[in-house]
Specification:
single chain, 17 helices, 10 strands, 48% helix, globular
Length: 496
Protein backbone atom coordinates (compact mmCIF):
# COMPACT_ATOMS: atom_id res chain seq x y z
CA UNK A 1 0.00 0.00 0.00
CA UNK A 2 1.28 3.48 -0.86
CA UNK A 3 1.85 5.46 2.35
CA UNK A 4 1.08 8.84 0.85
CA UNK A 5 -2.41 9.93 -0.17
CA UNK A 6 -4.39 13.04 -1.04
CA UNK A 7 -5.03 15.29 1.96
CA UNK A 8 -2.57 13.42 4.18
CA UNK A 9 -1.25 16.83 5.25
CA UNK A 10 -3.42 18.07 8.11
CA UNK A 11 -1.22 20.89 9.43
CA UNK A 12 -0.10 24.28 8.09
CA UNK A 13 3.49 24.98 7.01
CA UNK A 14 4.31 21.55 5.53
CA UNK A 15 7.86 20.29 5.15
CA UNK A 16 8.18 18.94 1.58
CA UNK A 17 8.15 15.15 1.56
CA UNK A 18 7.26 14.72 5.23
CA UNK A 19 3.60 14.74 6.23
CA UNK A 20 2.50 16.61 9.34
CA UNK A 21 5.96 17.49 10.66
CA UNK A 22 5.86 19.64 13.81
CA UNK A 23 7.79 20.38 16.97
CA UNK A 24 6.39 19.84 20.46
CA UNK A 25 6.39 23.27 22.20
CA UNK A 26 9.19 23.55 24.75
CA UNK A 27 11.02 20.37 23.71
CA UNK A 28 13.44 19.31 20.96
CA UNK A 29 10.98 16.54 20.13
CA UNK A 30 9.43 16.31 16.68
CA UNK A 31 6.53 14.32 15.25
CA UNK A 32 5.72 13.34 11.67
CA UNK A 33 4.43 10.78 9.20
CA UNK A 34 6.56 8.51 7.00
CA UNK A 35 8.84 10.74 4.90
CA UNK A 36 9.97 10.28 1.34
CA UNK A 37 13.74 9.92 0.85
CA UNK A 38 13.96 13.65 0.10
CA UNK A 39 11.63 14.30 3.06
CA UNK A 40 14.05 12.59 5.46
CA UNK A 41 16.80 15.00 4.49
CA UNK A 42 14.48 18.01 4.60
CA UNK A 43 13.44 17.10 8.16
CA UNK A 44 17.00 16.53 9.36
CA UNK A 45 18.13 19.84 7.88
CA UNK A 46 15.21 21.62 9.55
CA UNK A 47 15.88 19.97 12.91
CA UNK A 48 19.58 20.89 12.83
CA UNK A 49 18.99 24.41 11.53
CA UNK A 50 22.03 26.70 11.65
CA UNK A 51 23.04 25.77 15.19
CA UNK A 52 22.89 22.04 15.88
CA UNK A 53 25.78 20.12 14.25
CA UNK A 54 24.80 17.76 11.44
CA UNK A 55 27.27 15.21 12.76
CA UNK A 56 25.76 15.39 16.25
CA UNK A 57 23.51 12.68 17.70
CA UNK A 58 19.94 12.64 16.39
CA UNK A 59 17.47 10.00 17.58
CA UNK A 60 14.72 8.87 15.19
CA UNK A 61 12.05 6.44 16.41
CA UNK A 62 9.89 4.58 13.90
CA UNK A 63 6.75 3.30 15.67
CA UNK A 64 5.25 1.45 12.72
CA UNK A 65 4.44 -2.27 12.76
CA UNK A 66 4.33 -2.57 8.99
CA UNK A 67 7.55 -2.87 6.91
CA UNK A 68 8.51 -0.25 4.30
CA UNK A 69 10.36 -0.12 1.02
CA UNK A 70 11.01 2.96 -1.09
CA UNK A 71 10.00 2.96 -4.76
CA UNK A 72 11.38 5.93 -6.68
CA UNK A 73 11.90 7.69 -3.36
CA UNK A 74 8.33 7.19 -2.08
CA UNK A 75 7.39 4.86 0.80
CA UNK A 76 5.25 1.79 0.23
CA UNK A 77 4.29 -0.56 3.08
CA UNK A 78 3.22 -4.19 3.28
CA UNK A 79 -0.28 -4.62 4.68
CA UNK A 80 -2.68 -7.59 4.91
CA UNK A 81 -5.58 -7.19 2.44
CA UNK A 82 -8.02 -6.52 5.29
CA UNK A 83 -5.88 -3.66 6.63
CA UNK A 84 -5.72 -1.54 3.48
CA UNK A 85 -6.76 2.01 4.38
CA UNK A 86 -7.33 1.03 8.02
CA UNK A 87 -5.38 1.25 11.26
CA UNK A 88 -2.57 -1.31 11.14
CA UNK A 89 -3.18 -3.40 14.26
CA UNK A 90 -0.89 -6.30 13.34
CA UNK A 91 -0.46 -8.05 16.70
CA UNK A 92 2.75 -8.83 18.57
CA UNK A 93 5.29 -7.36 16.15
CA UNK A 94 8.79 -6.91 17.57
CA UNK A 95 11.71 -4.91 16.20
CA UNK A 96 13.41 -8.11 14.96
CA UNK A 97 10.20 -9.34 13.30
CA UNK A 98 9.71 -5.99 11.57
CA UNK A 99 13.33 -5.92 10.35
CA UNK A 100 12.98 -9.47 8.97
CA UNK A 101 9.65 -8.55 7.35
CA UNK A 102 11.28 -5.55 5.68
CA UNK A 103 14.05 -7.71 4.18
CA UNK A 104 11.50 -10.22 2.92
CA UNK A 105 9.28 -7.43 1.56
CA UNK A 106 12.22 -6.04 -0.44
CA UNK A 107 12.89 -9.49 -1.93
CA UNK A 108 9.23 -9.90 -2.91
CA UNK A 109 9.18 -6.45 -4.54
CA UNK A 110 12.40 -7.19 -6.46
CA UNK A 111 10.92 -10.48 -7.71
CA UNK A 112 7.61 -8.95 -8.75
CA UNK A 113 9.35 -6.07 -10.48
CA UNK A 114 11.45 -8.52 -12.50
CA UNK A 115 8.45 -10.67 -13.41
CA UNK A 116 6.38 -7.63 -14.43
CA UNK A 117 8.79 -5.93 -16.79
CA UNK A 118 10.23 -3.47 -14.29
CA UNK A 119 6.86 -2.44 -12.86
CA UNK A 120 5.25 -2.93 -9.47
CA UNK A 121 1.55 -3.14 -8.69
CA UNK A 122 0.30 -1.55 -5.48
CA UNK A 123 -2.85 0.06 -4.07
CA UNK A 124 -3.60 3.36 -2.38
CA UNK A 125 -5.55 3.71 0.87
CA UNK A 126 -8.80 3.67 -1.12
CA UNK A 127 -7.79 0.30 -2.67
CA UNK A 128 -7.33 1.90 -6.07
CA UNK A 129 -4.81 -0.13 -8.04
CA UNK A 130 -1.51 1.49 -9.04
CA UNK A 131 1.17 0.38 -11.46
CA UNK A 132 4.56 1.97 -10.87
CA UNK A 133 7.53 1.88 -13.22
CA UNK A 134 10.42 1.16 -10.86
CA UNK A 135 13.53 3.28 -11.34
CA UNK A 136 14.86 2.83 -7.81
CA UNK A 137 13.98 0.31 -5.10
CA UNK A 138 15.41 0.50 -1.57
CA UNK A 139 14.57 -0.81 1.87
CA UNK A 140 14.07 1.63 4.73
CA UNK A 141 17.34 0.39 6.25
CA UNK A 142 19.20 1.25 3.03
CA UNK A 143 17.65 4.71 3.04
CA UNK A 144 18.82 5.32 6.63
CA UNK A 145 22.36 4.15 5.84
CA UNK A 146 22.45 6.62 2.95
CA UNK A 147 21.37 9.45 5.25
CA UNK A 148 24.23 8.70 7.65
CA UNK A 149 26.71 9.96 5.04
CA UNK A 150 25.47 13.51 5.77
CA UNK A 151 24.18 12.89 9.30
CA UNK A 152 26.62 10.38 10.84
CA UNK A 153 25.13 10.80 14.32
CA UNK A 154 21.68 9.61 13.21
CA UNK A 155 20.28 6.70 15.23
CA UNK A 156 17.17 5.13 13.69
CA UNK A 157 15.36 2.79 16.09
CA UNK A 158 12.23 0.75 15.48
CA UNK A 159 9.72 0.42 18.31
CA UNK A 160 6.68 -1.13 16.60
CA UNK A 161 3.45 -0.40 18.50
CA UNK A 162 -0.24 -0.78 17.74
CA UNK A 163 -2.45 2.20 17.03
CA UNK A 164 -4.96 2.43 19.87
CA UNK A 165 -3.74 0.48 22.91
CA UNK A 166 -0.74 1.37 25.05
CA UNK A 167 2.76 0.36 24.00
CA UNK A 168 4.06 -2.64 25.95
CA UNK A 169 6.06 -1.88 29.09
CA UNK A 170 9.13 -3.17 27.23
CA UNK A 171 8.44 -0.62 24.46
CA UNK A 172 8.57 2.22 27.01
CA UNK A 173 11.89 0.79 28.21
CA UNK A 174 13.29 0.49 24.68
CA UNK A 175 12.62 4.18 24.06
CA UNK A 176 14.24 5.10 27.39
CA UNK A 177 17.30 2.91 26.76
CA UNK A 178 17.85 4.64 23.43
CA UNK A 179 17.60 8.08 25.05
CA UNK A 180 19.85 7.33 28.05
CA UNK A 181 23.21 9.02 27.49
CA UNK A 182 21.84 11.75 25.20
CA UNK A 183 21.95 15.45 26.03
CA UNK A 184 18.85 17.53 26.72
CA UNK A 185 19.29 19.31 23.38
CA UNK A 186 19.59 16.07 21.38
CA UNK A 187 16.80 16.14 18.78
CA UNK A 188 14.28 13.31 18.97
CA UNK A 189 12.04 12.58 15.96
CA UNK A 190 9.11 10.14 16.06
CA UNK A 191 7.14 8.90 13.06
CA UNK A 192 4.30 6.60 12.08
CA UNK A 193 2.51 6.55 8.73
CA UNK A 194 0.64 9.87 9.01
CA UNK A 195 1.90 11.47 12.23
CA UNK A 196 -1.19 10.64 14.28
CA UNK A 197 -1.79 8.43 17.31
CA UNK A 198 1.30 6.20 17.40
CA UNK A 199 3.77 9.01 16.73
CA UNK A 200 2.00 11.30 19.22
CA UNK A 201 2.24 8.59 21.90
CA UNK A 202 5.96 8.18 21.21
CA UNK A 203 6.46 11.93 21.49
CA UNK A 204 4.72 12.02 24.86
CA UNK A 205 7.10 9.31 26.11
CA UNK A 206 10.12 11.17 24.72
CA UNK A 207 9.01 14.46 26.32
CA UNK A 208 8.54 12.74 29.68
CA UNK A 209 12.08 11.37 29.41
CA UNK A 210 13.35 14.86 28.61
CA UNK A 211 11.56 16.04 31.77
CA UNK A 212 13.42 13.35 33.69
CA UNK A 213 16.69 14.81 32.39
CA UNK A 214 15.67 18.37 33.20
CA UNK A 215 14.44 17.50 36.67
CA UNK A 216 17.43 15.36 37.62
CA UNK A 217 20.01 17.69 36.06
CA UNK A 218 18.83 21.18 36.82
CA UNK A 219 16.60 21.20 39.88
CA UNK A 220 19.50 21.72 42.24
CA UNK A 221 20.98 24.37 39.94
CA UNK A 222 17.68 26.28 39.57
CA UNK A 223 17.32 26.49 43.33
CA UNK A 224 20.56 28.50 43.50
CA UNK A 225 19.27 31.26 41.19
CA UNK A 226 17.96 34.24 43.23
CA UNK A 227 14.32 35.13 42.62
CA UNK A 228 13.39 31.94 40.78
CA UNK A 229 10.37 30.10 42.13
CA UNK A 230 11.26 26.50 41.29
CA UNK A 231 7.68 25.36 41.89
CA UNK A 232 6.55 27.33 38.84
CA UNK A 233 8.71 25.09 36.64
CA UNK A 234 7.05 21.90 37.85
CA UNK A 235 4.45 20.41 35.51
CA UNK A 236 2.78 18.54 38.37
CA UNK A 237 1.34 21.94 39.37
CA UNK A 238 -0.60 21.97 36.11
CA UNK A 239 -4.29 22.77 36.57
CA UNK A 240 -6.68 21.69 33.86
CA UNK A 241 -9.59 23.87 32.78
CA UNK A 242 -12.32 23.04 35.34
CA UNK A 243 -15.03 23.82 32.77
CA UNK A 244 -14.11 20.69 30.79
CA UNK A 245 -16.31 17.67 31.45
CA UNK A 246 -15.00 14.65 33.33
CA UNK A 247 -14.17 12.66 30.17
CA UNK A 248 -12.11 15.49 28.67
CA UNK A 249 -10.32 15.83 32.01
CA UNK A 250 -9.48 12.13 31.95
CA UNK A 251 -11.32 11.44 35.19
CA UNK A 252 -12.22 7.84 34.42
CA UNK A 253 -12.99 5.56 37.36
CA UNK A 254 -10.02 3.32 36.59
CA UNK A 255 -7.72 6.36 36.44
CA UNK A 256 -9.00 7.54 39.81
CA UNK A 257 -8.12 4.13 41.24
CA UNK A 258 -4.67 4.33 39.67
CA UNK A 259 -4.04 7.74 41.23
CA UNK A 260 -4.99 6.39 44.65
CA UNK A 261 -2.48 3.53 44.32
CA UNK A 262 0.53 5.50 43.03
CA UNK A 263 2.84 7.58 45.16
CA UNK A 264 1.75 11.18 44.41
CA UNK A 265 -0.63 9.85 41.78
CA UNK A 266 -2.33 13.24 41.41
CA UNK A 267 1.02 14.86 40.61
CA UNK A 268 1.79 12.15 38.05
CA UNK A 269 -1.58 12.69 36.33
CA UNK A 270 -1.09 16.47 36.26
CA UNK A 271 2.40 15.99 34.81
CA UNK A 272 1.15 13.54 32.17
CA UNK A 273 -1.81 15.78 31.27
CA UNK A 274 0.46 18.77 30.71
CA UNK A 275 2.72 16.80 28.34
CA UNK A 276 -0.29 15.26 26.57
CA UNK A 277 -1.73 18.76 26.07
CA UNK A 278 1.55 20.02 24.61
CA UNK A 279 1.51 17.09 22.17
CA UNK A 280 -2.12 17.75 21.30
CA UNK A 281 -3.92 20.29 19.16
CA UNK A 282 -3.53 24.08 19.32
CA UNK A 283 -6.68 24.12 21.48
CA UNK A 284 -4.68 22.57 24.36
CA UNK A 285 -1.38 24.36 23.66
CA UNK A 286 0.11 21.91 21.17
CA UNK A 287 0.92 21.90 17.48
CA UNK A 288 -0.43 18.46 16.58
CA UNK A 289 -3.48 16.63 15.29
CA UNK A 290 -4.48 14.15 18.02
CA UNK A 291 -5.13 14.92 21.68
CA UNK A 292 -4.65 11.53 23.31
CA UNK A 293 -6.85 12.23 26.35
CA UNK A 294 -9.64 14.28 24.76
CA UNK A 295 -9.76 11.91 21.80
CA UNK A 296 -11.36 9.40 24.19
CA UNK A 297 -14.19 11.84 24.94
CA UNK A 298 -14.66 12.59 21.23
CA UNK A 299 -14.87 8.87 20.45
CA UNK A 300 -17.38 8.38 23.28
CA UNK A 301 -19.55 11.13 21.76
CA UNK A 302 -19.43 9.37 18.38
CA UNK A 303 -20.28 6.05 20.05
CA UNK A 304 -23.73 7.31 21.04
CA UNK A 305 -24.83 7.84 17.45
CA UNK A 306 -23.52 4.69 15.77
CA UNK A 307 -25.23 1.42 14.94
CA UNK A 308 -24.48 -1.74 16.92
CA UNK A 309 -21.71 -3.06 14.63
CA UNK A 310 -19.87 0.27 14.60
CA UNK A 311 -20.34 0.60 18.36
CA UNK A 312 -18.63 -2.75 18.96
CA UNK A 313 -15.53 -1.58 17.07
CA UNK A 314 -15.49 1.86 18.67
CA UNK A 315 -16.01 0.47 22.17
CA UNK A 316 -12.82 -1.58 21.81
CA UNK A 317 -10.96 1.47 20.52
CA UNK A 318 -12.18 3.63 23.43
CA UNK A 319 -11.11 1.04 25.99
CA UNK A 320 -7.71 0.70 24.27
CA UNK A 321 -7.22 4.46 24.45
CA UNK A 322 -8.14 4.51 28.15
CA UNK A 323 -5.54 1.78 28.65
CA UNK A 324 -2.96 3.92 26.85
CA UNK A 325 -3.79 6.95 29.02
CA UNK A 326 -3.58 4.78 32.15
CA UNK A 327 -0.08 3.55 31.30
CA UNK A 328 1.14 7.03 30.32
CA UNK A 329 0.22 8.19 33.84
CA UNK A 330 1.92 5.13 35.35
CA UNK A 331 5.01 5.82 33.22
CA UNK A 332 5.00 9.44 34.39
CA UNK A 333 5.01 8.22 38.01
CA UNK A 334 7.97 5.98 37.14
CA UNK A 335 9.87 8.85 35.49
CA UNK A 336 9.25 11.15 38.47
CA UNK A 337 10.46 8.48 40.86
CA UNK A 338 13.53 7.88 38.66
CA UNK A 339 14.39 11.59 38.58
CA UNK A 340 14.29 11.81 42.37
CA UNK A 341 16.47 8.70 42.66
CA UNK A 342 18.98 9.91 40.04
CA UNK A 343 19.66 13.07 42.03
CA UNK A 344 20.62 10.98 45.03
CA UNK A 345 22.48 8.08 43.40
CA UNK A 346 25.85 9.64 42.66
CA UNK A 347 29.11 7.81 43.25
CA UNK A 348 30.96 9.21 46.26
CA UNK A 349 34.09 10.00 44.26
CA UNK A 350 32.00 11.90 41.66
CA UNK A 351 29.79 13.80 44.05
CA UNK A 352 32.25 16.65 44.52
CA UNK A 353 32.32 17.27 40.77
CA UNK A 354 28.54 17.69 40.47
CA UNK A 355 27.59 19.10 43.88
CA UNK A 356 26.62 22.78 44.01
CA UNK A 357 28.56 24.79 46.64
CA UNK A 358 25.57 26.82 47.78
CA UNK A 359 23.18 23.96 48.49
CA UNK A 360 25.18 20.76 48.29
CA UNK A 361 22.59 19.40 45.84
CA UNK A 362 23.75 17.61 42.72
CA UNK A 363 23.44 18.98 39.19
CA UNK A 364 24.27 15.99 37.01
CA UNK A 365 24.86 16.46 33.26
CA UNK A 366 21.92 14.92 31.38
CA UNK A 367 24.15 12.64 29.32
CA UNK A 368 25.45 11.05 32.53
CA UNK A 369 22.03 10.28 34.01
CA UNK A 370 21.03 6.66 34.47
CA UNK A 371 17.69 5.02 35.17
CA UNK A 372 17.94 2.97 38.33
CA UNK A 373 15.35 0.42 37.17
CA UNK A 374 13.14 -0.35 34.20
CA UNK A 375 9.48 0.47 33.74
CA UNK A 376 8.85 -3.29 33.65
CA UNK A 377 10.35 -3.52 37.14
CA UNK A 378 8.32 -0.51 38.33
CA UNK A 379 5.09 -2.21 37.25
CA UNK A 380 6.07 -5.46 38.96
CA UNK A 381 6.77 -3.52 42.17
CA UNK A 382 3.33 -1.90 41.89
CA UNK A 383 1.56 -5.23 41.56
CA UNK A 384 -2.03 -5.20 40.44
CA UNK A 385 -1.92 -2.30 37.98
CA UNK A 386 -2.17 -4.61 34.95
CA UNK A 387 -5.21 -6.35 36.42
CA UNK A 388 -6.72 -3.01 37.42
CA UNK A 389 -6.72 -1.65 33.87
CA UNK A 390 -7.78 -4.97 32.31
CA UNK A 391 -10.91 -5.06 34.46
CA UNK A 392 -11.54 -1.32 34.72
CA UNK A 393 -11.02 0.09 31.21
CA UNK A 394 -14.63 -0.71 30.27
CA UNK A 395 -16.07 0.95 33.36
CA UNK A 396 -17.91 3.70 31.49
CA UNK A 397 -21.58 4.51 31.14
CA UNK A 398 -21.96 3.31 27.57
CA UNK A 399 -25.67 4.14 27.30
CA UNK A 400 -27.52 7.03 28.92
CA UNK A 401 -30.12 5.89 31.42
CA UNK A 402 -33.67 6.97 30.76
CA UNK A 403 -35.12 8.63 33.90
CA UNK A 404 -37.30 6.07 35.77
CA UNK A 405 -40.34 8.38 35.78
CA UNK A 406 -40.11 8.89 32.01
CA UNK A 407 -39.76 5.14 31.41
CA UNK A 408 -42.73 4.37 33.68
CA UNK A 409 -44.85 6.91 31.79
CA UNK A 410 -43.97 5.35 28.41
CA UNK A 411 -44.56 1.81 29.65
CA UNK A 412 -47.94 2.87 31.03
CA UNK A 413 -49.01 4.43 27.72
CA UNK A 414 -47.89 1.34 25.78
CA UNK A 415 -49.63 -1.07 28.14
CA UNK A 416 -52.92 0.85 28.07
CA UNK A 417 -53.27 1.20 24.28
CA UNK A 418 -50.03 1.10 22.26
CA UNK A 419 -51.47 2.02 18.88
CA UNK A 420 -54.00 4.48 20.26
CA UNK A 421 -51.31 6.27 22.27
CA UNK A 422 -48.56 6.00 19.64
CA UNK A 423 -48.53 9.73 18.85
CA UNK A 424 -48.23 10.60 22.53
CA UNK A 425 -45.53 7.90 22.98
CA UNK A 426 -43.37 9.33 20.17
CA UNK A 427 -43.84 12.87 21.50
CA UNK A 428 -42.81 11.82 25.03
CA UNK A 429 -39.81 9.80 23.80
CA UNK A 430 -38.44 12.83 21.97
CA UNK A 431 -39.24 15.13 24.88
CA UNK A 432 -37.23 12.82 27.15
CA UNK A 433 -34.40 12.68 24.60
CA UNK A 434 -34.33 16.47 24.43
CA UNK A 435 -33.61 16.58 28.17
CA UNK A 436 -31.22 13.61 28.24
CA UNK A 437 -29.02 14.91 25.42
CA UNK A 438 -29.23 18.54 26.44
CA UNK A 439 -25.46 18.62 27.06
CA UNK A 440 -24.65 17.86 23.42
CA UNK A 441 -24.18 20.77 21.00
CA UNK A 442 -26.80 21.28 18.31
CA UNK A 443 -26.07 19.51 15.03
CA UNK A 444 -26.11 16.14 13.29
CA UNK A 445 -24.46 14.32 16.22
CA UNK A 446 -27.27 15.34 18.56
CA UNK A 447 -30.01 14.53 16.03
CA UNK A 448 -28.59 11.05 15.42
CA UNK A 449 -28.13 10.39 19.16
CA UNK A 450 -31.78 11.30 19.83
CA UNK A 451 -32.98 9.23 16.88
CA UNK A 452 -31.00 6.20 18.03
CA UNK A 453 -32.37 6.63 21.56
CA UNK A 454 -35.91 6.78 20.15
CA UNK A 455 -35.34 3.59 18.13
CA UNK A 456 -34.08 1.67 21.17
CA UNK A 457 -36.77 3.01 23.49
CA UNK A 458 -39.67 2.14 21.19
CA UNK A 459 -38.30 -1.41 20.98
CA UNK A 460 -38.07 -1.54 24.77
CA UNK A 461 -41.78 -0.73 25.33
CA UNK A 462 -43.35 -2.68 22.45
CA UNK A 463 -46.16 -5.10 23.40
CA UNK A 464 -44.75 -8.60 23.89
CA UNK A 465 -46.19 -10.22 20.74
CA UNK A 466 -45.20 -7.31 18.51
CA UNK A 467 -41.72 -7.15 20.09
CA UNK A 468 -41.12 -10.86 19.48
CA UNK A 469 -42.13 -10.53 15.81
CA UNK A 470 -39.90 -7.51 15.18
CA UNK A 471 -36.92 -9.05 17.00
CA UNK A 472 -37.29 -12.08 14.73
CA UNK A 473 -37.28 -9.91 11.62
CA UNK A 474 -34.20 -8.03 12.85
CA UNK A 475 -32.39 -11.29 13.61
CA UNK A 476 -33.27 -12.58 10.14
CA UNK A 477 -31.92 -9.29 8.70
CA UNK A 478 -35.26 -8.51 7.09
CA UNK A 479 -35.33 -5.14 8.86
CA UNK A 480 -33.11 -3.06 11.12
CA UNK A 481 -33.65 -1.49 14.53
CA UNK A 482 -34.63 1.82 12.96
CA UNK A 483 -37.45 3.94 14.39
CA UNK A 484 -39.28 4.43 11.09
CA UNK A 485 -39.00 0.75 10.16
CA UNK A 486 -40.34 -0.28 13.56
CA UNK A 487 -43.20 2.22 13.37
CA UNK A 488 -43.98 1.10 9.83
CA UNK A 489 -44.26 -2.52 10.96
CA UNK A 490 -46.32 -1.57 14.02
CA UNK A 491 -48.84 0.47 12.04
CA UNK A 492 -49.02 -1.65 8.87
CA UNK A 493 -52.49 -2.90 8.11
CA UNK A 494 -52.82 -5.68 5.58
CA UNK A 495 -55.82 -5.33 3.21
CA UNK A 496 -58.11 -8.32 3.46
Amino acid sequence: MADGFDKIQKLPDPVPGCPNFRRVPGFKVYCCGQPTIAGFENVLNKVCGDIYPKDGPIIWFNLRQEPNVYVNGDPICARPPNKIGEYAELGAITRDIQKANEEEFLKVCEKRKTENGGKLKAVDINKKELEIEVKELKSLSQVIEGLKEKFPGLVHWRVPVCNSAAPLAADFDNICKTLVGTAINTPVIVNDQVGLSRATTGCVIACLFKEFQISASFEGLVETVPGVNASLLKTDRYVMNPEKDTLNRGEFEVVKELISKLKDGAGAKNNADKIIDLNGTPKTGGTGIKQLRENIAESKLSYEIMDDAAQAFLKTKIMDNIQKYFYLIAFTAYIRESAAAAREVVEADQKAAVALPASGKCSIPAAQLKLGKSFVTFLSENAGLDDLIDTGKGNLQWERDIPPAALANLEGLAAKDFKGNLGKIIHDIYQTAHVMFGDMPQGDHKKRAKYRFASKTIMRILPAAMKKEIEGLIEAKKMTMDLYEILGKCTWVEIK
